[in-house]
Every structure is written in structure tokens, then in C-alpha cells.
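Example for reference:
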Amino acid sequence: MRRLHPSRPCLWRSCPGHARTVGARQGGGVAGERFDVLVVGSGPAGSIAALVLARAGGRVALADKARFPRDKACGDLVGPRGVQLLDDLGINVPGARCVGDMIVVGPTGRRVRLPCRPGITYPGHGFAAPRAVLDETLRAAAVSAGAEFFVGRAAVPLLRDGRLEGFELSTGTRLCADVVIGADGATSRVADVAGLIDPTRVLWGFAIRAYVDDPVTLPHILLWEPDAWRGFPGYGWLFPGVGGRANMGLGLGMLSDRGAGAGAAQRFEA
């Protein structure tokens, strides 16, 4: 799983640690369906973790707050190393469109074409696929391998003698496991319970995306900050999509002000 650096899951073993106990249910025993591994979050990282573990013979529970397929604000591009990983896993994403080089446009309008060259083990191309399709393909592969999928938000942590053993979902279902993997994104409930999040130090990113009926051949990244050493306030993108459409969006750094994203969305819609 080391190749999933952009969305690397956090892993919590059912052993003594520093889990928060506020709002948790604890006691000498925790009643609930028992698994070897509970994966919270069924995005690419979580579904691939569940897939690999289920193929290895583990009894795996995969839980997500959303019903699938579901959409996600994203550029919808998978890079060459992601293509390699999916190929290694024997997964084919239906309708994916091959994508190669990328154009980067600076704040002065100057353009640079970045070639997409093959490596020793990965190809010289990525692909575009809507997240609704990609994520459902991976989730379905995990289920086909033997993982059990549950819909529900990880609500109440289940503790045994101060050790995290799972979660009670918002549906009331209790899931317990020897190992809990948190792959539930920027607002990870698992990371919160594990004490890995300091709300005063969180730097928020915000993305908004729309599909437009205008085909694009090469992906474009647009940087508008004139100071070369600054990455904020963000960037724009225009990526190839499927079905003759393009994926257009903005990625914005909100720093610690999560509410600033609402204003950005209103300006984007205008």
C-alpha cells in the first residue's frame, strides 16, 4: 500500500494507546460483529486496502457514510503510478480515457508542457475516469474479494479497556475488529478518535468542480499566484473528461478558515 501516498490510510491496532473516550462506549466487553480488519472509508485508499486484505484471506468490514456509486469533487485523473497499481491488482476501470502530457500555465500566461514518460515499472500515461465510476469499481472489487460493505457514518467508538475495537455506525450497526484502518479523508473520524487531529493546526483545502461540454486533449493546470514561492491561494484545472466533456475546477487553500470555501463556491458559480 506504500504507493498510495496522496491518501495514505492511518492504521489503529486494537492495542493500548491514547484514544479519546469522550462519547465512547466502553466496558469489559464490546458486543458487535467481529472482523479481522475494519476499514472506515471506501474511497480508493480504503477500498484497495480492503481488497488486498480480503484477497489475503482476512475477514474485512468496509464502511462508508455514503451509498455507492457517489460523486466526488475531483479532477478525475489517475497518474501513471496509479495505473501501475491498478494493473498489478488486475482492475480495469470501465470507460477510462488515456491521458498523457500536461500543460502548466503560469500567472503571466507562459505555458510549459510536462512530458509524461514511462518509468521502469509504470507506463507513460495516466487516465481520466469520473470518481463515481472509479470508486465504485474499487469498492465492488473489494466486495467481490470477500469484504463486507456497510453503509453508515462511524459514529461512536467502541472501546475495550481503553482500546479501540471498532465503531457503532450511524445506522446502529456495531463493527468490531482486531485492526481499524482510517481511510475516511480530511475529516477522519478514526484520526480524531486516535488523537491525531489538532483542530487549531488543521490547514483546510477546498475544491469545486464542474463538467463542461467542451472536449480537452491535454490536462491544464493554471497557477495564478505571481510569487513563485507561494502555492496559495490555489490553482485551477481543466482536464480531459469522458463522453466529450472536460473537467473544470479550482483547488483553494483555506488555511484554518474552513468557512471561506462557501464564498469561493459562490464566486465560481457566478
